[in-house]
Structures are given as structure tokens and as C-alpha cells.
């Protein structure tokens, strides 16, 4: 049973203890034909840590996420998750995509239950867990609907519920709120934050929004233009729980400014604008 | 009110099935009744009993007589029905299998795609006499022509359907570690199903067309042969009764297939 109550100290069985390296990528390189997507990237994610990655378009953020998710194999370098060398997708890694990736022929309930169906969990059990998670994301009454009957924000909540159903210890989110309007985006971000704090899961969060990265994260990594490398690392010692006014704190404003200063040069380079 | 309905989100489940205050089935009935009425009146009063067109009521009357005529039923209707059923089933199986091969193996796609693109430009019925020389005037040449004619449209639609799985859904399936058989059963076939159904519906219509057209050319049995003989012998009532029966059966069968398919086709929900 997923730990969805307010106890933030308990951890799912098998999860790495707080502070331990949960994800460790060393010298990761990836090219697509003649295009070098990722330079040598080193990435370390501690257990329970929320790390955002920002960078200019096409800098290899999604490629990095897919490598950590086991969806792509790096040309060079190694990735370890939970102390084991990564050899493909893990059972307890969940990925949230930008467009929700709902299966349109399935009901909302069956979409959420999909990962458990793949894991051959009995139908009754997986549907009960899916229904419970729909309650957590506020979609219990839409269980029998199909994705086309939902708004973009509701579909993204389905994607989050689906990601949580396997009780992941690592959540990889690839611009999950990129297609949403500003207000839904903020509400969804806090919703995600609340749920991952309850689960004590580690999160690697790809975003284009500097404010979103600062608002949610323990650390922000800034990537260079292609080939992507980590240029800067900003540790955010901001109080939790986070709220919209967190961004008004001087430390948060300084972090936003620092990220933008680094990013502006790289974004200009990726667009071919002189630095 | 209208603008509000058009812009309303799907989860409000507004009734969009009416136009002009009438449901779709009522409009369908009105249009068919008007067309049949026009034929009836033209045949009765404008052409006045000529060979060119007989009234709908006369066609229906003769069609009803044919339906209780054991000779017509066994020699023609059953023969054509079996031909359509067998050729359509073979076309569906071959078409879906080829579509799957084309999706899964780029070599098959590259090899078959040009032939599929030009297939309907080839006068395939011109091959029918050749097939008769090889296989005789039995069922085989008709089945070969009809299967080939309808398998292509099923193949084309099936390969498009298999290729329609969104990239992120593919990635999701990989991320949740579906096995190959789970991927085919839970993702690939459901995603392709609306296109497969669309191809199968067209394939069914093409099977009927191909069987009847083949029987027209050089056959000794079947409804196509019956219509062709009636046409050659100036038996207009028999000819139109045959056409009436074919049209009625085709419409009913395709409506039944359509209704069954609507439950499976998630794009129509």
C-alpha cells in the first residue's frame, strides 16, 4: 500500500536512506549521428532530493532524463541507480512526460493502472490502487471517463497518478507542466511536490521555467547549449513547505537571477545570437 | 447557445446527435425515402414502363420472389455470399499480417509500399480471364481476385494504424517494462484498431464489389452472373431486383459491421 498519509519520515521499503547517492551518472555522453547531444555529464541525485535541470532548447535535458530512466543507452559513461548499474528501465523509476502520454482507448482508471498491468498485478488489486490514487489527485469521480473527456491539467494529474502507482523511489519528470496554463501549472507543481514529499521519492525535474525550478527544488542544475554539460549548480536552502511567496524571498530572487544570467548566454548561443 | 455547445469540453457530455431538431437516423431515413420515392415516381410517370428503369415497388416485389426461389438462393445468393465471406476473411487476415510486418520490419515496408501505392491503378479485373484459364470457372479465380482487391486496403490501413502509436506512449510502454506480447496486446493493437476497422469496412465493400464484378465477367453462378444474364436478355425487372437485393444486403451487412465496430473504435467515442 502506498504511503500517502502525512508522515514524511517513513520511507518505502528498499528506498535509499536520505543523503545517500540515489542516482550517480558519471561521464555520460550521447550522440545522434553527427549531432553531439550530451557532452560528458556528471549527475548526482541524493535520496529524497528534488533536483531540477534547466537549459536552452535542444541542450540534451530530455536525453539525460531518458538515459537515467533506462530508455536510452549512453555512448560513454555509467549510470547507477540505487547502488546498481542501470541496465534498462527500473521497476521503481516512474516517468512523467510533457503530454501526459495517456492511452486514449483506456479509461482514466485503466490508464492509472497500466504500469501494474504490465507488472502482472491482479486486476482487482491494481484497480483498487488506481482508484485510491485518483482520489489523491482529485479525479476519483472521473475514473470511468476517457482522456479526451478531460482537460489538459486533468490528464496531467492522471499521468502523475500513473507514475505514483508503482510506489517509485525515483520520479523523472520531463517538462510535465510545459503545456499547461500558468495557474494550472502552479497548482499542479504544488500538488506534485506534496505527493513526492509524502513518498520521499527522489525527483529529477526537467523544466524551461526558472521560477518553477527554484520554487520546487533542493538543487538546480544549469546546462549549456548543445552539447549539453552541467555549467552551474545552485543549492537552494529555502524553507519547506514551499508556497508561491517563496519566490519573493531574497535567496530565491538571487537564485533566479543567477540561473538567468548563466542561461541567457547559453540560450543566445543556441539561437545563434552573439553573446 | 450554439457557440457554447461547440466550445464545451467533452466531459460535459452535451447532446450533439441532433440537427434541425431531428436525430441522425431520422435524417438518414428521410434522405433514403426521398431517393427511393424519386425513382418510383420517375419510373412510373416519367418513363412509363420502359426497360430503362422499373419502379422500386416492382423491384422489391421481384426481389421478394427471388428470396423464396430455391434455385436463386443456392445457385446465386449463397454462392456469392460464400465468396464474399471467404475472400473478406482471407483479406482481413492477410492485410493485418502484412500491415504488422510492414510496421515491424522496415525492409517489408520499403518492399511493399510502392506496390500498395499503385495497386488500385492496375486493372486487376483484366487478369480474371487469365485466372479462369488457370483455375477454371469455379470459386478459386473469384476468391483470388476479391481477396487481392480487398487485402490491399486492409494492409494500407493496418500499417498506418500500427505506425500511429504516439512516441511518448511507446516510451511509456518501455518505461513500465511491457513484454513484447503485452506491448502488442495493450498498446499496438488498441492504437491501430480504429484504422484496422476502417480498412476492414472498406475491404468488406471491396470484396462485395470484386465478387460481383468477377461474376459479371465470366462466371456461371452468383448474383453478379444473374444480373449480367438478366441485362443481356432485356429482363429489366430481374436485373433491377438483383441490384436491389445486392444493395439491400450490402447496406444491412455494412450497417451491422459499422454498429459492431463502433463499440471497438475508441476514436468515435
Note down, in words, how this protein is organized:
- The complex is a heterodimer of chains A (275) and B (269).
- Chain A is an alpha/beta fold and 275 residues long.
- Chain A has two domains: 1-92 and 168-275, Rossmann fold (3-Layer(aba) Sandwich), CATH 3.40.50.300; 100-166, no CATH class.
- Chain A is built from seven helices and ten strands.
- Chain A has helices at 61-68, 108-118, 123-136, 152-164, 182-199, 210-216, 250-270; strands at 21-32, 35-46, 50-54, 76-81, 84-85, 93-96, 170-174, 202-206, 219-223, 230-235.
- In chain A, the strands form two sheets. A six-stranded mixed β-sheet of chain A has the order 6-7-8-3-9-10, with helices on both faces. Chain A has a four-stranded antiparallel β-sheet with strand order 2-1-4-5, covered by helices on one side.
- The longest helix of chain A is centred in the C-terminal third of the chain and has 21 residues, at 250-270.
- Chain A is globular, with a radius of gyration of 18 Å.
- Chain A starts with 20 loop residues before the first strand and ends in a 5-residue tail after the last helix.
- With 269 residues, chain B is an all-alpha fold.
- Chain B folds into two domains: 21-53; 54-268, MetI-like fold (Orthogonal Bundle), CATH 1.10.3720.10.
- Chain B is 77% helix and 1% strand.
- Chain B has eleven helices and two strands.
- Chain B has a two-stranded antiparallel ribbon with strand order 1-2.
- The chains are: A alpha/beta (275), B mainly alpha (269).
- At the A-B interface, β6 and α2 of A face α8 and α9 of B.
Chain-wise SSE layout:
The complex is a heterodimer of chains A (275) and B (269).
Chain A: E1 21-32, E2 35-46, E3 50-54, H1 61-68, E4 76-81, E5 84-85, E6 93-96, H2 108-118, H3 123-136, H4 152-164, E7 170-174, H5 182-199, E8 202-206, H6 210-216, E9 219-223, E10 230-235, H7 250-270
Parallel strand pairs in A: 3-8, 3-9, 6-7, 7-8
Antiparallel strand pairs in A: 1-2, 1-4, 4-5, 9-10
Helix pairs in contact in A: 2-3, 2-4, 3-4, 4-5, 6-7
Chain B: H1 2-7, E1 18-19, E2 22-23, H2 24-46, H3 56-67, H4 70-104, H5 106-118, H6 128-135, H7 139-162, H8 167-175, H9 180-218, H10 223-232, H11 236-264
Antiparallel strand pairs in B: 1-2
Helix pairs in contact in B: 3-11, 4-5, 4-7, 4-9, 4-10, 6-7, 7-9, 9-10, 9-11, 10-11
Amino acid at each position: 500500500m502506498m504511503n500517502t498519509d502525512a508522515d514524511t519520515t517513513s520511507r518505502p521499503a528498499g528506498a535509499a536512506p536520505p543523503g545517500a547517492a540515489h542516482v550517480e551518472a558519471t561521464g555520460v555522453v550521447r550522440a545522434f549521428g553527427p549531432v553531439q547531444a550530451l557532452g560528458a555529464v556528471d549527475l548526482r541525485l541524493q535520496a529524497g532530493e528534488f533536483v531540477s535541470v534547466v537549459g536552452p532548447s535542444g541542450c540534451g535535458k530530455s536525453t539525460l532524463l531518458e538515459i537515467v530512466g533506462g530508455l536510452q543507452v549512453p555512448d560513454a559513461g555509467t549510470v547507477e541507480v540505487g547502488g546498481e548499474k542501470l541496465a534498462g528501465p527500473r521497476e521503481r523509476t516512474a516517468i512523467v512526460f510533457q503530454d501526459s502520454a495517456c492511452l486514449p482507448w483506456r479509461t482514466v482508471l485503466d490508464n492509472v493502472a497500466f504500469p501494474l498491468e504490465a507488472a502482472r498485478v491482479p486486476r482487482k488489486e491494481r484497480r483498487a490502487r488506481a482508484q485510491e490514487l485518483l482520489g489523491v489527485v482529485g479525479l476519483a469521480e472521473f475514473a470511468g471517463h476517457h482522456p479526451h473527456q478531460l482537460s489538459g491539467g486533468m490528464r496531467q494529474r492522471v499521468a502523475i497518478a500513473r507514475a505514483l502507482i508503482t510506489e517509485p523511489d525515483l520520479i523523472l519528470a520531463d517538462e510535465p507542466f510545459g503545456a499547461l496554463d500558468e495557474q494550472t501549472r502552479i497548482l499542479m507543481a504544488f500538488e506534485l511536490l506534496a505527493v513526492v514529499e509524502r513518498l520521499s521519492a527522489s525527483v529529477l525535474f526537467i523544466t524551461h521555467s526558472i521560477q518553477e525550478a527554484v520554487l520546487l527544488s533542493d538543487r538546480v542544475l544549469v546546462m549549456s547549449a548543445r552539447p549539453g554539460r552541467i555549467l552551474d549548480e545552485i543549492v537552494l536552502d529555502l524553507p519547506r513547505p514551499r508556497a508561491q511567496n517563496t519566490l519573493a524571498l531574497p535567496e530565491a530572487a538571487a537564485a533566479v537571477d543567477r540561473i538567468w544570467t548563466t542561461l541567457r548566454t547559453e540560450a543566445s548561443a543556441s539561437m545563434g545570437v552573439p553573446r | 447557445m450554439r457557440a457554447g455547445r461547440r466550445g464545451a469540453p467533452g466531459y460535459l457530455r452535451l447532446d450533439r446527435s441532433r440537427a434541425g431538431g431531428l436525430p441522425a437516423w431520422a435524417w438518414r431515413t428521410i434522405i433514403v425515402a426521398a431517393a427511393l420515392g424519386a425513382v418510383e415516381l420517375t419510373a412510373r410517370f416519367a418513363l412509363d414502363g420502359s426497360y430503362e428503369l422499373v419502379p422500386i415497388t416492382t423491384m422489391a416485389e421481384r426481389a421478394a420472389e427471388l428470396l423464396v426461389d430455391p434455385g436463386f438462393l443456392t445457385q446465386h445468393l449463397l454462392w456469392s455470399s460464400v465468396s464474399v465471406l471467404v475472400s473478406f476473411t482471407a483479406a482481413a487476415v492477410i492485410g493485418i499480417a502484412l500491415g504488422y510486418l510492414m510496421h515491424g520490419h522496415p525492409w517489408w515496408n520499403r518492399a511493399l509500399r510502392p506496390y500498395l501505392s499503385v495497386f488500385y491503378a492496375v486493372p486487376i479485373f483484366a487478369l480474371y480471364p487469365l485466372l479462369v484459364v488457370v483455375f477454371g470457372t469455379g470459386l478459386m479465380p473469384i476468391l483470388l481476385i476479391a481477396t487481392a482487391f480487398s487485402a490491399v486496403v486492409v494492409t494500407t490501413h493496418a500499417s498506418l494504424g500500427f505506425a500511429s502509436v504516439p512516441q511518448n506512449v511507446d516510451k511509456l510502454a518501455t518505461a513500465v517494462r511491457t513484454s513484447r506480447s503485452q506491448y502488442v496486446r495493450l498498446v499496438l493493437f488498441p492504437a491501430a484498431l480504429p484504422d484496422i476497422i476502417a480498412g476492414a469496412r472498406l475491404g468488406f465493400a471491396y470484396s462485395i464489389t470484386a465478387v460481383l464484378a468477377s461474376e459479371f465477367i465470366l462466371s456461371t453462378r452468383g448474383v453478379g452472373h444473374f444480373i449480367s444474364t438478366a441485362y443481356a436478355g432485356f429482363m429489366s425487372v430481374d436485373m433491377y431486383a438483383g441490384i436491389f437485393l445486392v444493395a439491400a444486403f450490402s447496406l444491412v451487412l455494412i450497417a451491422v459491421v459499422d454498429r459492431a465496430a463502433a463499440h471497438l473504435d475508441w476514436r468515435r467515442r
